[in-house]
Amino acid sequence: MKHDVILRVGAKFLLPFILLFALYVQFHGDFGPGGGFQAGVIAAATVIVYALIFGLDAAQRVVPLAVTERMIPLGVLVYAGTGVAGLLAGSDYLDYSVLMHDGPHGQELGIFLIEAGVFVTVSATMLAVFYAFAGRGR
Amino acid sequence: MVLLVLMVAATVGVLRLRNLFGVVVMGGIYSFLMATVLVVLDAVDVAMTEASVGAGVSTVLLLASLHLTKTEETASRHSVLVPLVVALGTGGALVYGTLDLPPFGVAEAPIHEHVVPRYLNETVRETMVPNVVTSVLASYRGYDTLGETTVIFTAGIGVLMLLKGRRRRPAADRPAR
């Protein structure tokens, strides 16, 4: 699909907005629908669409396979690490109330951190699985 | 109701079509209809997941795997009797299970009376997150979401090992044991 002008121009126009929407879903998940999982899938879809139109090599120059392979465990680590942080601060595992000066603010920070962890793992997993499938046909 | 009829139509389409490309497209249509049903049921978060994962990413993955095989389904050589019995048995068991559920939308259902009132009333005070879905997922039920993330991590690692391991290390230069 590399030579289709309409697709290429259309994708270049749309992709920034899709990525922006992913970030909106991520950071606005506290107030509207969405969260780390949905945002991760949308962000991965951005790169997948890029790969479909501009080719796998172009996409892997943007997000190399090695990066996705490191991001998959990194997200789980961030999530589990947030739990351990609660433990070190003197409370239960995954209790965020002690992470900041008062309970609600700590909860907000904890939710932000674990949603970031979910985002990293989900987007990297989706992308790595797509790379594995798409790279096999060559 | 219209949506459910369309979903049945999409399912029949999946069953009738021999062209696998058409089947994948039908699967995507089915997922979008499912997402619309979930929006009607006010489960916007789930609808978003269904639309992005079910209709988006998995359709692309199925198309990518279709690229590696033939696009026409070969005629099955096995009898359809065993799958039919299994499908009818599972479906019957599920329908039997729904008979004991409280009627749809009843306020006195057990699920609305256990911890839900506390979540709904206290979420803003305790977590400053107005979206209850997020606060339940991330805070009140944080362990479950940690497990969920680990499942995705495990699944990703598994797929990568299955699809990549063989290509990178041919039998010849594998270290001898």
Quickly describe the structure:
The complex is a heterodimer of chains A (138) and B (177). Chain A is mostly helical. Helix content of chain A is 78%, strand content 0%.
Describe this structure in words.
The complex is a heterodimer of chains A (138) and B (177). With 138 residues, chain A is mainly alpha-helical. Chain A is built from five helices and no strands. Chain A starts with a helix and ends with a helix. In chain A, 43% of the residues are buried. By secondary structure, chain B is mainly alpha-helical. In chain B, 74% of the residues lie in helices and 0% in strands. Chain B is built from eight helices and no strands. Chain B has helices at residues 2-16, 20-40, 44-68, 81-98, 110-113, 116-127, 132-140, 142-168. At the A-B interface, helix 2, helix 4 and helix 5 of A face helix 3, helix 6, helix 7 and helix 8 of B.
Descriptive keywords:
heterodimer; A: 138 residues; mainly alpha; 5 helices; 0% strand; B: 177 residues; 8 helices; globular
What low-confidence regions of chain B span 5 or more consecutive residues with pLDDT below 50?
Answer: none
Count, helices of chain B:
8
Shape of chain A: elongated
Helix content of chain B: over 70%
The arrangement of helices and strands of chain B along the chain is: HHHHHHHH
Separation of termini of chain A?
Answer: 16 Å
Note the overall shape of chain B. Answer: globular
Helix and strand content put the structural class of chain A at mainly alpha
Estimated radius of gyration of chain A: 18 Å
Number of helices of chain A: 5
Largest interface summary:
A-B, 50 and 44 residues
Number of strands of chain A: 0
Question: Main beta sheet of chain B, described?
Answer: none
Quantity of strands of chain B, as a count:
0
Range of helix content of chain A: over 70%
Specify the structural class of chain B: mainly alpha
Q: From the alpha-carbon coordinates, what is the Rg of chain B to the nearest angstrom?
A: 22 Å
Give the terminus-to-terminus CA distance of chain B: 62 Å
The quaternary organization reads as heterodimer
